[in-house]
What does this fold into?
Amino acid sequence: MPRTLLPGQRAELYVVDVTTGEHRLVFSSSSLLFEAPNWSSDGDWLVVNGDGQLFRIPVGGDDELEQLDLGGVPPINNDHVLSPDGTTVYVSADDGHLYAVPIPGGSSSRVTNDRGAGFHHYLHGISPDGSTLAYIGLENLADGRRITNVYTIPSAGGEDVQITNDEYADDGSEYSPDGKWIYFNSERASTAPGHAQLFRIAGRTIEQLTDDERVNWFPHPAPDGSTVAYVSFPPGTLGHPADIDDVRLRLLDADGKIRELATLFGGQGTMNVPSWSPDSTHLAYVAYPIAGQ
It folds into this structure.
């Protein structure tokens, strides 16, 4: 079921200038819980999901969201990416599959293969040339275990390639701007359940990017390769829950320096997918404040 707002809660879509730290409110709603902003390749639109549907809004803001036609796709979750040429949006549906949908709408096509009822695809990244999708494959095993690994698949459909093959909890797989690395968050370096950190992988080489007391999720490399944006949860957080206080948006620069962009009430839905402006100067995110808190 799609998430809904709590009593007194709002969904607020912001863009932040990563140089000046200036935050600008683009859109706010007390009726629709929307999530996970993408930025269009022409820099003009932000795309969000809500209530199982997809919407867009001009970056400059508007009084309402414009719903996009998903062409018969089942209700979607908050994992979606836009093609580099701006013609297609790829979405993760609640039936466990990935679909390609023309923008601004039209006939959709399923991208993923049938890997059994216990396998679900969660989309997070697309290669710079638009040819390949990076997703997290979730396997629900008969013994009750839930296994997540990083996979890729051609965006036009084809054979899956498994990138990681272990039982560490992985999520948020996204390509580097040069296409050489896949960034992701994982618990593979942790001795405590839920303590995810940021990594990247190329072939058999895995590099750890963060190592601190906070729980770090969803690495988003800037298009110019200068920095990586991510969502940081308080110590001890399990997974990437919604409605958490002290959620921080951070930048990890090439020299390893960490910069704070925002502290907010949110988490799930705040910045799950690629949300950089094409010129790497701004990020889009969603906060979920509750009146009186």
